[in-house]
Amino acid sequence: MADDPQTVESERLSLPLLTANRMERLLAGDADSVASEIGAPIPDWWANDAGRLMQFRLKQIGEEPTSEPWLLRPIVLRDGPDGPVVIGYLNFHGPPDDRGFAEVGYEVHLDYRGQGYAIEAVRTLFDWAAREHDVHRFRASISPGNERSENLVHKLGMTHVGAQWDDPDGLELIYTVDRWRLSA
Question: What is the dihedral of CA 83, 48, 96, 75, to 10 degrees?
Answer without folding.
Answer: -10
